[in-house]
Amino acid sequence: MFDKTFQNELSEFLQELHDQGLYKQERILEGPQSSVIEVSGKKVLNFCANNYLGLSNHPEVIAASAKTMQEWGFGLSSVRFICGTQTIHKQLENRLSTYLGMEDTLLFSSCFDANAAVFDPLLDERDAIVSDALNHASIIDGVRLCKAKRFRYAHSDMEELRLCLEDAKSSRRRLIVTDGVFSMDGDIAKLGEICDLAEAYNALVLVDDSHATGYIGETGRGSIEHCGVGHRIDIITTTFGKALGGASGGCISGKKEIIELLRQRARPYLFSNTLAPAIVGGTLQVLDMVEKENPYRKKTMQNAHLFRKMMTASGFDLVPGDTAIVPVMLYDEKKAVAMADALLEEGIYVIGFSFPVVPKGQARIRVQLSALHTTEDIEAAVQAFIRVRG
Ligand SMILES: *Cc1c(COP(=O)(O)O)cnc(C)c1O
User: Fold this and answer.
1) How many whole angstroms separate alpha carbon 250 and alpha carbon 175?
2) Which of 104, 135, 215, 258 has its CA 20 to 30 A from that of 305?
């Protein structure tokens, strides 16, 4: 029973979150996702969406999604293996396999689900998972659902990774798992070195490329393309909820036998509903738009470079990198939050991140660039940063 005691305990805990400045207020957008959004009746420039390619509200994506819904229905009311697999689901899986350069692909409602699904059927107590300390929460949770031994190396520390692999030598199978692009620092995993170590220690490599698929690398195929290691990666997980249109959905892509086994055994695949036709149709359209030529990614990267250049010239302390995630370091928790608030007043929507999302004393404002931003938008953002710096 939800009694007074439990109610009071929850209220106290929520109050503590408020007191510590850890309570998350959701800002309400009064229209679609874009580079200009309406928040509390005010138009602001948006620099905190994962809308890297600017396709979240693209008319061709909306049209394809609507058409697919008309043709294939609103929903399937089924999981994939009972009566939830349509022609378009197989089509999307095949398209993703080709796009990502893998043998086969499995769809999920989200990449969070894909990461919850991927470990347990492949590994048990005889095996070992070696994970970067800054990996995404969904990887951490997915690893928890699996009985394999866990090893964690300091972020991108290749010597620690080697030591972990050394410790895991007696395990039957070893799997290294890493984000392709890390969301808080915007840096790219050292996939070349990771693959070298994987070969030396006979380990599998899994890359979660959620923050990279669609815009990192020469044709936008992700960190794997950027690092030139396509043929050396065994499993990719990624999302359609960021650069690829931003609705929802994700996948696991990889070697044929791995995907075949996961189709039989992955619990979020077996026991959760199939991806809605509208999402499948929209995502297929996005792939049409980025597969051959990807004009959007050039703009995204140009914008990121321009913002970095102008901010550095204005004396701001940025985490160096080559992605559209640009962390502006402030170190001080309160300063980061106050600065983000002041920027919103100036019409620039960014978020300050502090502990526990980033380590103590590493507070920052994370700026994310999109292909939709104009040069004027970027100049306006830099000018606002200069004004609120005081
Ligand atoms: C965003 C993200 C996810 C979650 O993706 P969803 O499809 O929104 O569930 C998983 N992994 C990484 C690395 C991410 O950045």
Assistant:
1) 21
2) 135
- Pairing relation of β-strands 348-349 and 42-46? parallel
The position carrying tokens 């696991």 is: 252
Cβ neighbourhood burial of 18 (10 Å; 0-12, 13-18, 19+): exposed
DSSP state of 232: G
The verdict on whether 67 is a catalytic residue reads no
List of domains in the chain: 20-53+294-389 (3.90.1150.10), 59-292 (3.40.640.10)
Among residues 346, 338, 366, which one has the least CA distance to residue 21?
338
Ligand 1 pocket, residue 179 CB under 6 Å: yes
- 244 secondary structure, DSSP code: S
Question: To the nearest 10°, the Cα dihedral for 236, 276, 261, 137?
Answer: 50
Question: Is 321 exposed, middle or buried, given 0-12, 13-18 or 19+ CB atoms closer than 10 A?
Answer: middle
Annotated active-site residue 78? The verdict is: no
Residue 135 near ligand 1, beta carbon < 6 Å: no
The letter for the amino acid at 227 is C
Question: Of all atoms in ligand 1, which is nearest to the CA of residue 182?
Answer: 13
Instruction: Note if 242 is an active site residue.
Output: yes
Protein residue closest via CA to atom 5 of ligand 1: 111
Q: Is 285 in the pocket of ligand 1 (CB under 6 A)?
A: no
pTM above threshold 0.90: yes
Ligand 1 centroid distance, CA of 113 (Å): 9
Rounded-to-integer distance, Cα 215 and Cα 181, Å: 11
State which ligand 1 atom lies nearest to the alpha carbon of 110: 7
Q: For each of the chain's 390 residues, which pLDDT tens digit applies?
A: 999 999 999 999 999 988 887 788 888 999 999 999 999 899 999 999 999 999 999 999 999 999 999 999 999 999 999 999 999 999 999 999 999 999 999 999 999 999 999 999 999 999 999 999 999 999 999 999 999 999 999 999 999 999 999 999 999 999 999 999 999 999 999 999 999 999 999 999 999 999 999 999 999 999 999 999 999 999 999 999 999 999 999 999 999 999 999 999 999 999 999 999 999 999 999 999 999 889 999 999 999 999 999 999 999 999 999 999 999 999 998 899 899 999 999 999 999 998 888 888 999 999 999 999 999 999 999 999 999 997
